[in-house]
Amino acid sequence: MTAPIISGKQVSEEIRGNLRQEVESLVKQGLTPGLAVILVGEDPASQVYVRNKEKACHDLGYYSEVHRLPASTSQEELLALVEKLNQQADIHGILVQLPLPKHIDEKSVINAIAVEKDVDGFHPVNVGNLVIGDDSLLPCTPAGVIELIKRTGIEMSGKHAVVIGRSNIVGKPVSLLLQRENATVTMCHSRTANMKEITKQADILVVAIGRANFVDASYVKPGAVVIDVGMNRLDNGKLAGDVDFESVKEISGPITPVPGGVGPMTITMLMHNTLIAAKRLAGLA
Ligand code: L34
């Protein structure tokens, strides 16, 4: 039997519908949420993602600025732009698209973003608040994974969730959020021994290892929920997740596709964060 497909695209549309309504009423009160995205260089994948963010702003009635800078931009120039946006009253969210060119130190740039405008949730203060369970702006992809699971009606409490990947952007934060939902969480990574033995115990398997089609059916317990965070561009130009969807869907439970799974949710949670940041900065939340 083939597993049900979890459509991130469809769930995103639902959430965006709610956001659109809320923004409409905020605009009437004189508050238009504003997002600034900075893209340095011409990485083709980043260009697609940033265009999708710009489109989402436009569709939902946000004010949007996209700063496209040449790859030769110096760290000082980038920091000066971040500083300017920190001060700018019509901007409530600032996002510097990663990865940055090698001559720029990502940490210094992230640290320069005002904590209240850090809609990526990458600033150490927001990360720290996430770890201790305080209110914070949550990183968009991990928050999108949790929201997608919740809105599909899948229970997390008491379940064994296994996360493959330990990055700061996905693996670590999504593990914390699953734990916050009362799942029992195991983290696997590139050095994990006997990985299949562990992943085969997962009720919920979240894959963020960054290798195309890494997880095949032999990693998955029959009926397990499979969330694919991977976004790999193959040589033939096609997009592939970290999960071999065709083989896994024959034995898994509900499973996300790529594209149309976690990707759209990342952008939807960015829109959500920008709305929250705008309300907090305006003293409305
Ligand atoms: N600062 N850098 C910062 N914040 C982020 O949250 C990101 N990320 C990741 C890369 N760098 C970042 C994104 O925005 C990945 N990511 C992202 C955003 C959108 C999509 C995928 C990744 C997306 O729209 N995916 C579509 C398909 C797009 C395509 O055709 O290539 C999907 O349906 O999955």
From TrEMBL:
Keywords, ordered alphabetically: Amino-acid biosynthesis, Histidine biosynthesis, Hydrolase, Methionine biosynthesis, Multifunctional enzyme, NADP, One-carbon metabolism, Oxidoreductase, Purine biosynthesis
Pathway assignment: One-carbon metabolism; tetrahydrofolate interconversion
Catalysed reaction equations from the record: (6R)-5,10-methenyltetrahydrofolate + H2O = (6R)-10-formyltetrahydrofolate + H(+); (6R)-5,10-methylene-5,6,7,8-tetrahydrofolate + NADP(+) = (6R)-5,10-methenyltetrahydrofolate + NADPH
UniProt superkingdom: Bacteria
Pfam families assigned: THF_DHG_CYH, THF_DHG_CYH_C
Stretches assigned to the Tetrahydrofolate dehydrogenase/cyclohydrolase NAD(P)-binding domain: 139-280
Sequence ranges assigned to domain Tetrahydrofolate dehydrogenase/cyclohydrolase catalytic in this UniProt record: 6-120
Chain positions recorded as NADP(+) binding sites: G165, R166, S167
E.C. designation(s): 1.5.1.5, 3.5.4.9
Keyword Ligase (UniProt): no
The keyword NADP appears for this protein: yes
HAMAP family linked to this entry: THF_DHG_CYH
Family, as annotated: Belongs to the tetrahydrofolate dehydrogenase/cyclohydrolase family.
Role summary: Catalyzes the oxidation of 5,10-methylenetetrahydrofolate to 5,10-methenyltetrahydrofolate and then the hydrolysis of 5,10-methenyltetrahydrofolate to 10-formyltetrahydrofolate.
Family matches, as PANTHER family: C-1-TETRAHYDROFOLATE SYNTHASE, CYTOPLASMIC, C-1-TETRAHYDROFOLATE SYNTHASE, CYTOPLASMIC-RELATED
Subunit structure and binding partners: Homodimer.
Official protein name in the record: Bifunctional protein FolD
Gene designation per UniProt: folD
